Amino acid sequence: MSTVKLTVNGKAVAVDVEDRTLLVQLLRDHLNLTGTHVGCDTSQCGACVVHMDGRAVKSCTMLAGQADGANVTTIEGIAKGEELHPMQAAFRDNHGLQCGYCTPGMIMSAIDIVQRHGGQLDEATVRHELEGNICRCTGYHNIVKAVLDAAGRMKVAQAAE
Ligand code: FES
User: Fold this and answer.
1) Which band of pLDDT confidence, cut at 50, 70 and 90, is reported for residue 138?
2) Which atom belonging to ligand 1 lies closest to the Cα atom of 46?
C-alpha cells in the first residue's frame, strides 16, 4: 500500500491504494468520481480521459502513484456550479452525445485539443486529434461539429475572463 497525494478538481486528497491501483480506479472506486468511464482498460477507447497537470491522459493507462503530487481534473470538475463548461454546452447544443458513454472522455480530450490548437482548429485536425477516442454509437459528425463550435465559445469565454 502507498499513500497517493494529489489535487482532484481543486481539492487536495490523500488516498491509500495498492501499488497496482490505476488512476481510473483511484478516481472511480476511492473518490466516487464515476463520470470517468472505463470502456476497454487497454488504452484504446479514450472513455477514461482526464486532465493531469492540464493535459489529457488516459487514466486506465497510468498507475495512481504516477499521479502523486499532480493536479487532476475530471469531467465532474469542469463546470462552474450550474454553468456548463463551453465544451459541455457545445456538445449539448450540437447533439454531440448519443448513448453518452464516450462523452466524458471526448469532452476532456476535446478541451485539451482546443487549448493546444486555439483558433487554428479545422475539421480535419479535430478528426485526427480525436482518433484516440472511440464512440461506440459511431456518431462522430456531431461530436466534431461540437468541438469546432466550442473552440469559438472557449475563445469568447477566455476573452471575458
Ligand atoms: Fe482507458 Fe479505454 S478505458 S482507453
Assistant:
1) confident
2) 4
